[in-house]
Amino acid sequence: MQGRRLTASRALVRDVRLLGRLLCEAIEASDGKEAREIVEQVRTLSIAGRRKTSPRLNEKLAPFCADMPPRTLKRVIRAFSQFSQLVNIAEDAHQARVQRFSIADGEPAMPGTIARSLSVLAAAGVEAEAIRKLLVEAVVSPVFTAHPTEVRRKSVIDIEQQLAQCLSRLEQAGLTAQETDRYQADLERATTTLWQTNSLRGRRLQVVDEILNGLSYYDSTIFRVIPEVYEGLENQLRGSPWRFAQDALPPFLRMGSWIGGDRDGNPFVNGETLREALRLQSERVFSFYLGELHSLGAELSLDDRYVKVSQELQRLATDSPDRSEQRRHEPYRLAISGMYARLAATARKFGSTELVREPVAAAPCYLSPAEFAEDLATIGKSLIANGAGKIAAGKLRSLQRAVDVFGFHLVSLDLRQNSEVHQRVVHELFEKVRPGTGYEALAESDKIHLLTEELRSSQLLVTSLKTYSAETMSELSVLREAAEAHKRYGRASIPNYIISKAGSSSDLLEVMVLFREVGLFRPDEPEAASVNIIPLFETISDLRSSHDVMQTVLAIEAYRTYLRALGGKQEIMLGYSDSNKDGGYLTSGWELYKAEMAFIQLFDREGIRLSLFHGRGGSVGRGGGPSYEAITALPAGAVAGSIRLTEQGEVIAAKYSNPALGRRNLELLIAATLEASLLPSDAQEPDPEFLHAMEELSGLAFGAYRCLVYETEGFERFFWEATIIGEIAKLNIGSRPASRSSSRRIEDLRAIPWVFGWSQSRIMLPGWFGFGSAVEQWLTGHPDGLPTLQRMHRDWPFFQTLIANMEMVLAKTNMAIAARYVNLTPDAPAHEKIFARIKDEWEATTAALLGITDQASLLENNPALKQSIHHRFPCLDPLNHMQIDLLRRHRAGERDQDTEEALHLTINGIAAGLRNSG
C-alpha cells in the first residue's frame, strides 16, 4: 500500500510538470519565445526567493515584476493564473488516484469512505435496523450558493473540466501507444485553448450567469455521480453484517441551491429571477432524462419473439404512438418511445424551448414525476420477471434513482432574505390597513402579541386598493412565485425559507404572516403549511441569544402547529461567516458549538426533531475546511441523520469539477452523517475541563479580536487601503454588491469580501487572529496548562479540527508580502503600527499552535498540504507582487484597460492559488 501511495505522489509531480510544460509550449507558440522566457525567469526568481529564510525573500522578484510594461505584465499574470488552475486540476486527479489505489488494495484506509464508516459502525455494535431507520428520515444536502467574489467565466470552467477529463483518460490502464498519443494531443489542445481564451468577463456577472455556472456541474458530475453513490451504499448494505433486502434506499441525498433565490443583500434577485432559476433547473433535468431515455431505448433491443414481457409493459408498448414497423417486435423500445414523447411534451409544458431529438408523435404530458417513475418501474419489473434482472440493474436503475432524487425540479431552491426587510414589509402592511400601528417601534413582546393575533385570522393585509413600496411589492412577488412553483413543480422545488440576521422570535412570525398573504400558509388549514422557516443566527450576540429565541417561539401555539404540519422538525441555520467577522475565529467556532449543544437539549425537551444547516464558506474564516472532520467534530446529537451545508465559489469547483471528486465528496457527507448520528454518544462527549478551558480562551480571543477590528482607530481605513477590497467592489466579479449598504463600515460589509480581501493580501486574518494572545494570556494564569491544550488537541475532535484548519491558514499566510500591501497606503506610518500588531499576533499564534501540536514547523504532520503549497506557491507569490504594483498604478490614476484587466487577472490567479480564499 505504501508503495502505491508513493507512486501516486510521484504521479502528481509528473502531472504538475506536464501541465506546466504544455502551458509554456502554448505560450511560446502563441506569443513567442521571449514571452515564455520571461515567464520562466519570474518562476525561477520566485522559487529562489522562497528558499531563502530572510524576510526580504523576494528582494529580486518584486522589482523585476515592477519594471514590466502593462501588456507584458498582463501576459505573465495570465500565465501564472492559469498555472495555478492547472495545479488544482493535477491535485484533483491525484485525489481520485489515491482513492482508486485504496479501493484496489482492498483497504478502505481513507476516513470518510462509506465502507470505512460502516466498518466503524459494525465494530461499535450498531444494528442494521438502526441504519435503516436513520436513512428513512435522513437528509444529506450540499447547497450550492453564488459567490459575491466569483472570479471565473463559465467558458474557462468548461475548458478546465475538459483538461481534467483528458488527464483522467491518460490515467487509464492498458492504453495503446496510439491511444496515449491521442489523449496527449487532446490535452495539448485543451491547454492551448485555455491560454488563448479570455478569462475575464466583459460585464459584471448577472444572476442568470450564476445559475448557469451552478448547473454546469450537474452535466459534468452530479447527474452521473448521485445514482452511483446510492448504488454503492446499497451494495455495501447488502453485504455482511447488514444483509439489507433489495429495496432501494429512500432519496435522502439531495442537492440544494440558493442561486436565484437568495435575496439577502442582492437587489438583482426578484420574482423574475426566481422563476427563471426554476425554469432553467427544470430544463436541465428534462434534457438529462430525455437523453437517458434515448440511450436506454438503444440498449433495450429485446425481441418479444425471444423473451416474454409483462402485461403492464405490453400495455405501455401498445399505447405508444410509435408505429414503426421496424420496432413492432421490440416492446421495450416501443414503450420507451412513447415515454419519450410524453416526457418531451412535459418538458415543453415546463418551459423547455429546444429538444435535442423530437418525439415520434404528440403524446399527453406526465402529470407528476411519480407517474414517470411508475412507467420506469414497469420496465424494470418486466425485465426482472423475465430473466433480465442484470439489465434492469444498469442504466435503467440509474435513471430511476435520478428521478427519485431530482423529480421535475432538479434541485431544491431555498429562499433567503434579511430579517430587517421582513420587518419593514410587515410594518408597511399594517400601516396600510391600520394606520398608527407603528410595528417597527413596538417592543418584542408587543410584536409577538400583534403577530400571533394576526395569524389567527384568514383576512389578508394586502389589498388591491392600496399602493405599496417597491421593496414590499418585490418581496410579495418572490413569495407569489414560490407559491406558483409549488403548484407547478411540487413542494420540493422550494422547501425552505432562511431568515438572515435572525435575532428575535418575531422574525419567524413575520415570515408566517407573509406566507399567509400569498397562500403558502392558511390559518384555517394549518396542515397546508408547505415551507420550512429557518432562522439564521449569525452574529455572536445572536448566537448567544438563539436558545431563548427558539424557546420563546416554540411556546407559541401557532408556530407549534405550523411545525407539526411540517413533520415536527425545525431546521436552524448557523452562520460561520458573520460570527467570525463579528467575534474572530476562535470565538465564532466556540459560540457555534455552544449554540448547537443548547439547541440539542432544548429540542430534546420539547420533543421536536432538530436539523442544523451549516453556513460554511470556502475559507477557514468562514467555516471552511474538510467537511468530514467538521461534521464528525460536532457535539453529540447535532446531526441525528440530518445535515445541510453550503458549498460556495471555488469550493464547488474543487469538490464537483469531475465525477471522481464529486463522488468522493458526497460519500464523505454520507459517511460523516452515519458516524455522527449512530456512534455511541459517550464517545463524542468532551471532557468538562476542555469546555471550561475553551470558554476562557474564547473570552480572551474575543477581546483581542474586537480590540483590533472594532476599537482601533483607523483600522477600517487600514482594511480598505491595505487590501484590494475597494477594487474588488468595482470589478466585474459577482452579481452581489460587496456591502449590504453604501457605507464602508466593517459591520455593513458582507463576510465573503471581508475574508476575500484579507486572503488576497496574504494576511488571512479572519482565520487565526486572537488565538495566539489568548493562549499566551491563558497560560499565564495556568502555568501548567500546556498539557491540557495538548490533550484537547489529541482527544477532542472539535478542537483538533479547529487547530488543523487554522494551521492551513497560517501556512498560506505571508507577512513579507503583506508588508508590501501595507506600504501602498497613503498613511503608511499609522498603518504600520496596526500591521505590527497583526504580525506580532501571527507570530504568537504560530508559536502557540506549534506548542499545542508538538511540531517544529507548520504542516509537519500534514505532508499532503505541504506538498501542495510547494507546488503552487512559487506561482502564487509573483501574482501578489504584480498585484501590488498594479494597485499602486491603479490608485495613482492609471486606469487604462491593460492595467485594469491585469489587476483583475491577479485576483483570479491568487484566488485559484489559495483555492479556499472566500
UniProtKB/TrEMBL annotation:
Its EC number is 4.1.1.31. GO terms for molecular function: magnesium ion binding; phosphoenolpyruvate carboxylase activity. The keyword Magnesium applies. The keyword Kinase does not apply. Keywords: Carbon dioxide fixation, Lyase, Magnesium, Pyruvate. The active site is at H147, K581. Gene3D superfamilies: Phosphoenolpyruvate/pyruvate domain (1.20.1440.90). It is an enzyme of class 4 (lyase). It catalyses: oxaloacetate + phosphate = phosphoenolpyruvate + hydrogencarbonate. Its cofactor is Mg(2+). One of its GO terms (cellular component) is cytosol. It comes from the Bacteria. One of its GO terms (biological process) is tricarboxylic acid cycle. Pfam families: PEPcase. PROSITE patterns: PEPCASE_1, PEPCASE_2. Forms oxaloacetate, a four-carbon dicarboxylic acid source for the tricarboxylic acid cycle. Homotetramer. Belongs to the PEPCase type 1 family. HAMAP family: PEPcase_type1. This is Phosphoenolpyruvate carboxylase. It comes from Rhizobium sophoriradicis. The lineage of its organism: Bacteria, Pseudomonadati, Pseudomonadota, Alphaproteobacteria, Hyphomicrobiales. The gene is ppc.
